[in-house]
Amino acid sequence: MGFLLSNYQLTICILLYSLIFCFSSSSAHLCHNDESTTLLQFKQSFSFNCSACNCYRNGLYTDNWKEGTDCCAWDGITCDNTTAHVTGLDLNCKCLYGTIHPNSSLFNLVHLQHLDLSYNNFNHSQILPSFGRFTNLTHLDLSVSYLSGPIQGNRELTGKLASFINGTLRHLRHLGSLDLSEIDLTGELPNSIGQLVYLEELHLSDCNLFGTIPTSLGNLTRLIWLALRGNKLINGQFPSSIGHLKNLERLHLGDCNFSGTIPRWLTNLTRLTLLDLSYNNFEGPIPQLFSNFLQRQSIDFSNNQLTGPISSSITGLPNLHYLGLGSNSINGTIPSSLFHLANFSQLRAIDFSNNQLTGPISSSITGLPNLQSLYLGSNSINGTIPPSLFHLVNLTYLDLSSNNLSETVELDSFAKLEYLDSLDLSDSGLSLTTTNPTPSSFRNIRTLRLSSCNINKISEFLKTRMELLEVLDLSNNHLNEELNPLCNLHSLKTLDLSNNQLTGLIPTCLGNFNGNLTWLNLQRNNFHGSIPQTLGYASMLQELDISHNGLQGVLPRSLANCTNLEILNLGHNFIEDAFPFWLENLPQLKIIVLRDNKFHGPIEQPRKRLAFTNLHIIDMSHNEFTGTLPSEYFESMHSMMMDYEDKSSLNYMGVGYGYYSVTIMNKGLEMTLVRIITIFKAVDFSHNKFDGKIPISIGILKALRVLNFSRNGFTGPIPLSLSNLTELESLGLSQNKLSGEIPQQLTSLTFLEVFDVSQNNLTGIIPRGRQFETFSNTSYEGNLGLCGFPLSKNCGNVQIAESPTLPSSFSHNFKFKFDGFGWEAVLMGYGCGVLLGLLIGNCIIRRKEEWLVRIFGVKMCQHGKRSKKVWKKIAHAKSIINCL
Ligand SMILES: *[C@@H]1O[C@H](CO)[C@@H](O)[C@H](O)[C@H]1NC(C)=O
Ligand SMILES: *[C@@H]1O[C@H](CO)[C@@H](O)[C@H](O)[C@H]1NC(C)=O
Ligand SMILES: *[C@@H]1O[C@H](CO)[C@@H](O)[C@H](O)[C@H]1NC(C)=O
Ligand SMILES: *[C@@H]1O[C@H](CO)[C@@H](O)[C@H](O)[C@H]1NC(C)=O
Ligand SMILES: *[C@@H]1O[C@H](CO)[C@@H](O)[C@H](O)[C@H]1NC(C)=O
Ligand SMILES: *[C@@H]1O[C@H](CO)[C@@H](O)[C@H](O)[C@H]1NC(C)=O
Ligand SMILES: *[C@@H]1O[C@H](CO)[C@@H](O)[C@H](O)[C@H]1NC(C)=O
Ligand SMILES: *[C@@H]1O[C@H](CO)[C@@H](O)[C@H](O)[C@H]1NC(C)=O
Ligand SMILES: *[C@@H]1O[C@H](CO)[C@@H](O)[C@H](O)[C@H]1NC(C)=O
Ligand SMILES: *[C@@H]1O[C@H](CO)[C@@H](O)[C@H](O)[C@H]1NC(C)=O
Question: Where are the transmembrane segments (predicted)?
């Protein structure tokens, strides 16, 4: 006890001492009492919620803001060293959550020169005119703070930014740096922007600005850094006013909507070091800007529609670090001048992927000693890999996927690149052998994609020390081993072994991978035996696809523990089990495919009121289910009821690594459905032994696009409620025992493209009008009591009202093209760059790679803060897609 006390006293002494020391030695820094109080009040008006903020680093409130201490020494505070007024407040990423009110104490800190509130969450409160009180402000950063632009005070103003400029910014005569990135400023980029002539840095990325760039922007001649990235609606020709900004060093104009050619006068901007024009609609040749660009460090022209060759006159950019020309329509060969040391000694990253480049990779590539990233995927590059490539010891990312290389290479040759983090050789044309691996090879590798590389054996190789490996794609090879060596790869998150002839049992270790495994695709192999119980221990699992194998037995109940599971594809096995009602609690489950197994028995009543609420696709076809359909099941399938989802911004299922895909068999045709869009909803119960009536409650699944109840024993009438399924494009009811008439109301299903009620006991007049004008005899065959168009059997004198015929996809932004009644659909793309189709068959993928990438335009994501922003290149579409 005595010891504790003395310790306590000692602490007090030290505290006192430091206080006194503080007071005496730097009294000039001691902050003003009122400012100290103000700051504390400001802090108290927020809660701290790091998960609500969008921090690029671990946001943390390091709290040394304590009453009675010198506020000038607090975290994030700067004081003037003569007046001791608070002149700087830097609260970047401090997890602040709450509203900034008009009477906020913040606005009492009138001496502020530097204010940074970025990366907090101010709960969509408005930027207030009170910011105008900081008349000496030189630096204002409100980016990514969930603030929104001020409401227009004046109707003549054209938007929120205009109103902010007029109400506040034009009073801040000393403001040199302004960052409003990712703040909603919906409106035009106003002419009045030209008033902010003192600005050196202006960041307005992702602000929902639209219209053209006003010429007055050319007034901001002091600008060094201009960022307008991600304002998708800024359009038109590239603004020549930017040519006046002679001091510009960094220019971010990516992901706007510019068109035309890239202007030559950009060479006027001789100080430019960073030029980002990616994700626009620029066309024409790559401009000859290069030789004057002595300072350039980064040039990004990727994701445009540039054509023609990479000119061999690209020289004299000794400072260039990054050259991005990916995802254009550039053709010709890669000039070897590019690889001459004197020209590009600093080059760290080259992205030429997804173009139409041909010819070989030049052997002079050794001229780039600092090269770390080389993206050449999705071109038509042929020939062999020059041995010099293996001398680029600094290489970290290498993508040669989807090319026409022709060579057999020992995988271990790449092991010389000891810093390799990501290697993608999928579909490159290379054949890989994997004998004699160096035990220490690939020590640093995280991503290894070797799909379609003619690999016969990999098990020896997998014994090497790839301890960091997170993504392994060996799909579409000729592996026919057992895969126990996989158990060495403890860090695996994504494992794709689909389309091989792997045998034996599914390795039980898969479930034990540190709980990291999220994506497991073993479809189309020869695995047999039962599904290991341990699979369910991989509790992070999001996709489990073990379809098309020879698996038997029952489903491991441990799967009920995989609360992140979104896709469960068990199709085409020999699984013998009852309906897995115990999956009903999985909150994320979107797709269940049980197709073609030996599932049997009735579908039970749901145990819980909220069962399968998130389901988008359920395919139980080709099993032995019996009994009547409990209507309660449909009543809880909420996401199938939602037809109000925003159709203008189409989302795909899947995250991070790629998109979910499901492969199914249809009429002898194998189809891989990739990028299943979230608005695609389907129910397929066909080829079972269900009986009883079709429950009326099916009519509440308003968002359904495909409904298939054919080949069962359903009796009774076709429920009227089906006419509520207004999105329905395919309805299959054939080969049942349905009776009564076809409801006239079904003509209201204006998107119905496939309709089959053949082989039932239906009677009466076939409805006329709209889509019903387009169905043929085969839709009605085998119903002796039906009459009228299109059947030859006349109904006598009965007259029926005809409704006008509408084109099936009239006003539909998207549609599916069906080959039968499965939900297996083929994506059709229509129109100008807008994604209209939803699913894709693998045959299209191969041919139309270019089209694919255009349409799906794999988008780079922006995270973090400017200079630290990583424009992360997600492996482009081809490698994401798991096709045959
Ligand atoms: C105040 O601090 C700044 C930098 O922090 C320094 O440049 C300046 O000389 C200091 N002035 C006085 C009077 O100490
Ligand atoms: C603004 O700066 C000027 C000059 O440095 C100074 O005289 C004035 O007091 C400052 N105003 C405020 C409110 O701090
Ligand atoms: C700017 O705001 C003032 C009031 O602060 C208003 O009188 C003036 O009309 C506004 N200017 C424009 C161009 O709307
Ligand atoms: C551009 O600058 C000039 C002179 O500095 C000024 O008179 C003019 O109003 C500015 N234009 C705009 C649109 O702000
Ligand atoms: C670029 O510079 C040239 C001459 O140096 C000049 O004639 C031209 O007008 C400038 N272009 C722009 C857009 O500033
Ligand atoms: C490159 O494409 C253009 C059309 O954009 C074509 O005229 C030219 O012949 C192509 N060159 C090569 C080498 O394929
Ligand atoms: C690898 O890069 C470093 C700098 O990033 C450089 O010093 C080194 O020379 C490079 N290695 C080779 C072999 O050129
Ligand atoms: C590479 O392709 C070009 C044209 O596409 C062709 O002329 C050349 O012979 C090919 N080279 C090899 C090694 O296949
Ligand atoms: C995931 O793997 C990493 C090694 O890459 C490991 O450090 C981590 O603990 C694993 N996560 C879990 C939840 O086991
Ligand atoms: C689910 O996990 C818990 C704890 O991790 C475990 O006790 C339980 O047995 C698991 N359930 C199944 C069905 O495996």
Answer: 821-845
Torsion sign (Cα): 529, 531, 535, 537? negative
Decide: 699 in ligand 8 pocket, CB within 6 A. Answer: no
pLDDT, residue 608, reads 62
pLDDT at 14: 43
Give the domain ranges of the chain: 508-787, 817-883
Q: Specify whether domain 508-787 bears CATH 3.80.10.10.
A: yes
For residue 201, how far is its CA from the centre of ligand 3 (angstroms)?
Answer: 25
Tell which phi-psi region holds residue 754, choosing left (phi > 0), alpha (psi between -120 and 50) or beta: beta
Whether residue 107 contacts residue 82, with contact meaning beta carbons closer than 8 Å, is answered with: no
Amino acid found at 462: L
Q: For residue 678, what pLDDT is reported? A: 62
Instruction: Read off the pLDDT of each residue in 353-376 and give the average, rounded to a whole number.
Output: 89
Establish whether residue 516 lines the binding site of ligand 9, counting it when its CB lies within 6 angstroms of any ligand atom: yes
**Which ligand neighbours the alpha carbon of 196 most closely?**
4
Helices (H), 474-607: none
Per-residue pLDDT tens over the stretch 589-599: 988 999 999 99
**158-162, 306-310, 733-737: lowest mean pLDDT where?**
158-162
Q: What is the mean pLDDT of residues 296-312?
A: 88
Which positions ≥6 away from 466 have C-beta within 8 Å? 442, 443, 445, 448, 488, 489
Look up residue 419 and give its amino acid: Y
How many CB atoms are closer than 10 A to CB 34? 11
**What pLDDT is attached to residue 300?**
92
* pLDDT tens, position by position, 720-754: 999 999 888 889 999 999 999 999 999 888 888 88
Tell the residue number behind the tokens 């009008």, with chain if given. Answer: 769
Q: Is the CB of 588 under 6 A from ligand 1?
A: no
**331 CA to centre of ligand 6 in angstroms:** 6
φ, ψ dihedrals at 112, nearest 5°: -55, 135
